């Protein structure tokens, strides 16, 4: 099993061609909740169930981010190494770090905005903890969310560029099949 180290085959090391299945599934599950949060986001206190779905999606995104970090550490030696130029490597890691920052900040800023707007918020009959803040971060939350979607679009465009133009294994390495 290739969880902690590459497999030694003869005189050469075998590097996996795909990410481990848990990382792949978590990647696509994160996309699902990011899109759900994005398309249900308007004004949660006034949107009923749609607003609750938006807030729940944000909470799940933070949980998925924490799981992603744990899995990246656990599978750090079982991930494919792509043949990228130095510039591509820097760009890929920069976008990835910005995506992770957005995954952390967007829901937190959204939650602070929610608590600035209402004294309590019921999430499917569960009263969310309230933190009193005297200012709304609604504009920052929307800016972060839009930046997050733009970065995700760049990430997807780069994967398609690798698949269609460079014809390498980058996109296939994250495919669930």
Polypeptide structure, described:
The chain is mainly alpha-helical and 177 residues long. The protein has a single domain, classed as Up-down Bundle (Fumarate Reductase Cytochrome B subunit), CATH 1.20.950.20. It is 60% helix and 6% strand. The chain contains 4 helices and 4 strands; from the N terminus they run E-E-H-H-H-E-E-H. The strands form 2 sheets. A two-stranded antiparallel ribbon has the order 1-2. It has a two-stranded antiparallel sheet with strand order 3-4. Strand 1 (7-9) and strand 2 (12-14) form a beta hairpin. The two termini are 18 Å apart. The relative contact order is 0.14. Mean pLDDT is 86; it is low at 1-11.
Q: What is the total tally of β strands?
A: 4
Question: What is the residue-averaged pLDDT?
Answer: 86
Instruction: Give the SSE order as H and E letters.
Output: EEHHHEEH
What structural class do you assign from the helix and strand content?
Answer: mainly alpha
The gyration radius over C-alpha positions equals 19 Å
Report the principal-axis shape.
elongated
> Which CATH-level-2 architecture?
Up-down Bundle
- Strand portion: 5-15%
Q: Within the largest sheet, what's the order of strands?
A: 1-2
Low-confidence runs (pLDDT<50, min 5 residues)?
1-11
- The level-1 CATH class: Mainly Alpha
- Please, how many domains? 1
Outline the biggest β-sheet.
2 strands, antiparallel
* Termini Cα gap: 18 Å
- What is the H level of CATH, i.e. the homologous superfamily? Transmembrane di-heme cytochromes, Chain C
Portion of residues within helices: 55-70%
* CATH domain fold name: Fumarate Reductase Cytochrome B subunit
H/I helix tally: 4
Organism: Pasteurella dagmatis ATCC 43325
GO biological process, one term: respiratory electron transport chain
Subcellular location: Cell membrane
Cofactor: heme b
């Amino acid at each position: 099993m290739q969880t902690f180290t590459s497999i030694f085959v003869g005189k050469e090391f075998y590097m996996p061609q795909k990410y481990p299945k848990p990382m792949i599934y978590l990647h696509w599950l994160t996309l699902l909740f990011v899109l759900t949060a994005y398309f249900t986001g308007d004004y949660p206190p006034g949107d009923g169930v749609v607003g609750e779905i938006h807030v729940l999606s944000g909470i799940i995104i933070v949980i998925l981010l924490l799981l992603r970090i744990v899995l990246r550490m656990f599978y750090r030696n079982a991930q494919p190494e792509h043949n990228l130029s130095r510039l591509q490597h820097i760009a890929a890691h920069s976008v990835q770090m910005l995506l992770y920052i957005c995954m952390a900040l967007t829901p937190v800023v959204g939650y602070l905005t929610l608590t600035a707007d209402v004294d309590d918020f019921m999430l499917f009959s569960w009263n969310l903890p309230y933190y009193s803040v005297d200012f709304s971060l609604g504009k920052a939350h929307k800016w972060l969310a839009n930046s997050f979607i733009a970065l995700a679009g760049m990430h997807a465009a780069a994967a398609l560029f690798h698949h269609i133009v460079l014809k390498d294994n980058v996109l296939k390495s994250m495919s669930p099949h």
